[in-house]
């Protein structure tokens, strides 16, 4: 099974309606969570799923602990993790104190071995995916229209319909919930989103 891609039009910075160049982007299939990874490792290595998941959880804690100490954490075949900081800009170092310097973000850099493994990726064009970059309101509207024939939809379906990543989909769906246009049902991997006017049918 290979990955699918679609061609998307670059946003028009001038907003003058002129056609923009297209670029290829992966069509998200969804998200693989720790439990699925643990099950796959267990099947290939002979460990129990519970043991494997425990080791993955422990790995996450060890990475977090060492990042807090200021280390870069490198996993040989995978890549390295590091953190960045944020603070207000100053001209003189005397103008800033340690309490005003905060954690910024976690950064991951793929290893050379990981990149080499991905160079032979099998790609297939997804003819069903959209080929345009939609605005937030356009993305939301497309899903609401598509959901008229469905009782519910998922974040993965939202991602596929609009060609967006998971963080964008989750943000859009959260805004739809806050606007009272959909309702979230379930937890974890079993989350469904239901248009408000269809709740009584579920």
Automatic annotation (TrEMBL):
It comes from the Bacteria. SUPFAM superfamilies: IHF-like DNA-binding proteins. One of its GO terms (molecular function) is DNA binding. The keyword Oxidoreductase does not apply. It holds the Pfam family HU-HIG. Keywords: DNA-binding. Residues 1-125 form the HU domain. InterPro entries: HU-HIG, HU_DNA-bd_put, IHF-like_DNA-bd_dom_sf, WH-like_DNA-bd_sf. This is HU domain-containing protein. It comes from Parabacteroides goldsteinii dnLKV18.
């Amino acid at each position: 099974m290979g990955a699918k891609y679609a061609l998307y039009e670059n946003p028009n910075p001038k907003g003058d309606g002129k056609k923009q160049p297209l670029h290829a982007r992966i069509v998200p299939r969804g998200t693989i969570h720790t439990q699925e990874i643990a099950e796959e490792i267990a099947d290939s290595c002979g460990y129990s799923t519970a043991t494997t998941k425990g080791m993955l959880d422990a790995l996450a804690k060890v990475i977090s602990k060492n990042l807090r100490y200021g280390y870069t954490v490198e996993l040989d075949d995978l890549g390295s993790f590091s953190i960045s900081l944020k603070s207000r800009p100053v001209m003189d170092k005397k103008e800033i104190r340690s309490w005003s310097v905060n954690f910024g973000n976690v950064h991951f850099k793929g290893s050379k071995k990981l990149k080499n493994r991905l160079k032979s990726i099998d790609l297939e064009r997804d003819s069903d995916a959209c080929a345009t970059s939609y605005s937030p309101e356009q993305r939301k509207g497309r899903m609401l229209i598509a959901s008229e024939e469905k009782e519910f939809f998922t974040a993965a379906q939202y991602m596929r319909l609009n060609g967006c990543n998971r963080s964008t989909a989750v943000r859009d769906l959260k805004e739809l919930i806050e606007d009272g246009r959909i309702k979230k049902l379930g937890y974890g991997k079993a989350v469904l989103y239901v248009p408000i006017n269809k709740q009584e049918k579920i």
